[in-house]
Structure formats: structure tokens, C-alpha cells
């Protein structure tokens, strides 16, 4: 079974979106020059706040697209 074929319940997707929205709000509350760490796989990488926020926003868009796709199917 392909990973893309597995359907995630919309409630779970909405919870994940909500957690990412909270993470984005927390990132916005930091000073602009503050260094943050992002997790990629099992490793944390140091990055700036704007790059981390962009990454979180992309994840939110992906999850919302999955939620829309699953609701239309």
C-alpha cells in the first residue's frame, strides 16, 4: 500500500493544522533576529525565524490541501 493512499480522518488533519497555526503564531512572537531550530527527520537544524515560519506555512497549506481532497472524495 502506498503512503499516499492512506486516508487521514479530517478531524486529525484539522488538529494538525491547528497545532501548526499555534507554532506559526509562536514564531511570529519571537524577535526577528532570533535563531530557532527546525526538525528535519531526526535532526534539528538551526535557522532563522522567517525560514522556520515559511516552512510551517507550507506544511499548513499541504495539510489543508489534503483535507480538501479527502472531503471531496
Automatic annotation (TrEMBL):
Give the organism the record lists.
Answer: Coccomyxa subellipsoidea
**Family affiliation:** Belongs to the prefoldin subunit beta family.
Top-rank taxon: Eukaryota
What is the designated name of this protein?
Prefoldin
InterPro entries reported for this sequence: PFD_beta-like (IPR002777), Prefoldin (IPR009053)
Cite the SUPFAM superfamilies for this sequence.
Prefoldin (SSF46579)
Amino acid at each position: 500500500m502506498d503512503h499516499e493512499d492512506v486516508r487521514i480522518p479530517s478531524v486529525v488533519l484539522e488538529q494538525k493544522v491547528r497545532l501548526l497555526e499555534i507554532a506559526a503564531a509562536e514564531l511570529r512572537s519571537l524577535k526577528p533576529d532570533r535563531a530557532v531550530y527546525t526538525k528535519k527527520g531526526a535532526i534539528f537544524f538551526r535557522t532563522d525565524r522567517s525560514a522556520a515560519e515559511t516552512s510551517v506555512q507550507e506544511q499548513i497549506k499541504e495539510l489543508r490541501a489534503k483535507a480538501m481532497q479527502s472531503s471531496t472524495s
